[in-house]
Amino acid sequence: MISDDTLIKVRDVYVSHRLVRDMYTGLSGYLIELNLALEDGRVFTMVNIPSDVAEAIKVFNGTATAPRRQSLFTFLLSNEVFKEAISRGLKHVTIDELDPVTGLYTASVKFEEGGVNITIKMIPSHAVYLAIVSGKAIYVKKTFVDQQEKFEEENR
């Protein structure tokens, strides 16, 4: 059971890009960000999202069109059998782990079908993709949101 005091539900998911420049070399590039708009009004952001996952989420949201050369993620958006199978078994996604050394998040994806309950660990962007395609709930550990908010306030 999900405890409301430790997790915050995601109400919307969108992709953005941020231009970053290396102060030593002058080289620049874009960070792909996955933004999770939360029920409490805050936004939890994860960076360095794989471009194929970001593209599929943008296509799903209607902010991009499917490319001529599709990734597995954009292809599966139009596959009703896939979406139905995921919808049937997936219960919810929770971003609930952070590796303090690498700074990488991990998501727990809960599946239930035919009396079998399985929770697997996944790359968060992939887990979020599965949840939005299947219309299932996404949660973020409140402490991660609080930590990100505190970090942003200290670095303004």
Termini gap: 37 Å
Q: Name the helicity range.
A: 25-40%
Classify the fold: give the CATH topology. Bifunctional nuclease domain
Structure summary, number of beta strands: 7
Shape: globular
SSE string, helix = H, strand = E? EEEHHHEEEHEH
CATH architecture: Roll
Measured by DSSP, the beta-strand proportion falls in 35-45%
What radius of gyration results from the CA coordinates? 16 Å
How many helices? 5
* CATH class membership: Alpha Beta
Name of the CATH homologous superfamily = Bifunctional nuclease domain
How many separate domains?
1
Structural class: alpha+beta
Question: Explain this structure to me?
Answer:
The chain is α+β, with helices and mostly antiparallel strands and 156 residues long. It has a single domain (7-151), classed as Bifunctional nuclease domain. It is 33% helix and 39% strand. It contains five helices and seven strands; from the N terminus they run βββαααβββαβα. It has helices spanning 51-61, 72-77, 80-89, 124-134, 142-154; strands at 7-21, 28-38, 43-47, 90-98, 105-113, 116-122, 137-141. A seven-stranded mixed sheet has the order 3-2-1-7-4-5-6, with helices on both faces. β2 and β3 (43-47) form a beta hairpin. α3 packs across α4. It is globular. It starts with 6 loop residues before the first strand and ends with a helix. The model has no long low-confidence stretch (mean pLDDT 93).
